[in-house]
TrEMBL record:
Signal peptide: none annotated. The chain crosses the membrane at residues 7-25, 45-67, 87-106, 140-161, 173-194, 200-216, 223-239, 245-265, 277-300, 306-326. Pfam families: Acyl_transf_3. GO terms for biological process: lipopolysaccharide biosynthetic process. Coiled coil: none annotated. This is Acyltransferase family protein. Keywords: Acyltransferase, Membrane, Transferase, Transmembrane, Transmembrane helix. It comes from Robinsoniella peoriensis. GO terms for cellular component: membrane. GO terms for molecular function: acyltransferase activity, transferring groups other than amino-acyl groups.
Length: 343
């Protein structure tokens, strides 16, 4: 039976990508924060960066299902199918984005001049390993590199967990308790300031929390916990910065809380037309991220809330268009290819 699509996950992706888009445009416009008492009315834009945290948690959550669906295959075929699917999901749109960026972006839009070796590092998804290459071409491409590194680790994580369970001879209940404890222990690792410039390390606990949340799907988490986590994370975005928490700790707590809130809150159902829009925007979230730079040249250094929102809408529209032109046709071709292989 085909798994029913979760609109909670789709809405989490949309929330994350809109937040990241607002953050990038807000920073480029150099808008001041609008503080009223203890509230920051520009909180969604300032803390939109937590969208990246949300995306890593959701990605880890989804990878568990993707890898488990291949369980019946021999190890070699399973690894080949998983890695090939991940590569074809990420690489084509990413490569086209790099090509467009390199050809059409003016020099003053680049963080710094880049060389051929920087392009090669990006094409091989290894640019996040070095501070010299991570911000070349476009700074936000670091996310793609880190994501691919985590995808490579998924089978290894499954293997380690399987061996650990066999070695410890854990019961079903003990495994779930261990998963909950692992979530609690992993979460604070994202707060460590030492890792703030090492995203491929700092984001791994977020990815693992998502994987553990997927493993705990069978546990009946009270829906009220999901709602409270979501509201708590949202509330943190609009509260004036807390002097007792570091920036990384604040960002991680809010991002993980919102992500788990989406996953654990009551199931969201909407009518067909709105459902179609939500699914389309969710599917296009990757392309929206890739084409964040589309209107950077035209974003004014100063502007009000309306101007900022207008550029966010334009950026989302360009990402949706590129999804329809690149990702969607490719997905159809791959789907037809898979059906032929099954026949």
């Amino acid at each position: 039976m085909k798994d029913e699509r979760s609109l909670n996950i789709d809405l989490a992706r949309i929330f994350a990508i809109v937040g990241v888009t607002y953050y990038h445009i807000w920073k480029r416009m150099r808008r001041p924060e609008y503080i009223v008492g203890i509230f920051n009315l520009d909180g969604f834009a300032k803390w939109g960066v937590i969208g990246v945290i949300i995306m890593f948690v959701i990605s880890g959550y989804c990878m568990v299902g993707s890898y488990q669906r291949l369980e019946g295959l021999p190890t070699g075929k399973r690894l080949k199918s998983f890695y090939l699917t991940r590569f074809l999901r990420i690489a084509p749109a990413y490569y086209i984005s790099i090509l467009i960026c390199c050809i059409f972006m003016a020099n003053n839009l680049k963080p710094q001049p880049y060389e051929f070796k920087d392009v090669v590092a990006h094409l091989l998804f290894v640019h996040a390993f070095s501070m010299e290459t991570v911000a070349k071409i476009k700074g936000f491409y670091w996310y793609i590199s880190v994501q691919m590194i985590f995808y490579l680790m998924v089978p290894f994580i499954f293997l380690v967990c399987k061996k650990a369970v066999l070695w410890l001879k854990l019961s079903a209940t003990a495994k779930k308790v261990a998963a909950i404890l692992a979530c609690i222990l992993l979460f604070p690792l994202t707060w460590i300031t030492f890792f703030s410039n090492m995203e491929y390390i700092a984001m791994l606990p977020c990815f693992l929390v998502g994987m553990l949340a997927a493993y705990l799907k069978g546990v009946k988490v009270p829906r009220v916990i999901g709602i409270l986590l979501f509201l708590g994370g949202i509330g943190m975005m609009f509260i004036k910065s807390n002097p007792f928490l570091t920036y990384d700790a604040y960002k991680s707590i809010s991002g993980v809380a919102i992500a788990l809130g989406f996953l654990w809150m009551p199931k969201i159902n909407v009518k067909n037309s709105l459902r179609t829009i939500i699914i389309a925007l969710s599917a296009a979230s990757y392309s929206i991220y890739l084409y964040q730079f589309a209107f950077f040249a035209f974003i004014p250094k100063k502007g009000g809330e309306f101007v900022m929102t207008l550029f966010v809408v334009f950026t989302v529209a360009v990402g949706l268009l590129m999804y329809l032109c690149v990702e969607y046709p490719l997905a159809n071709v791959l789907c037809r290819g898979n059906k032929k292989q099954q026949v």
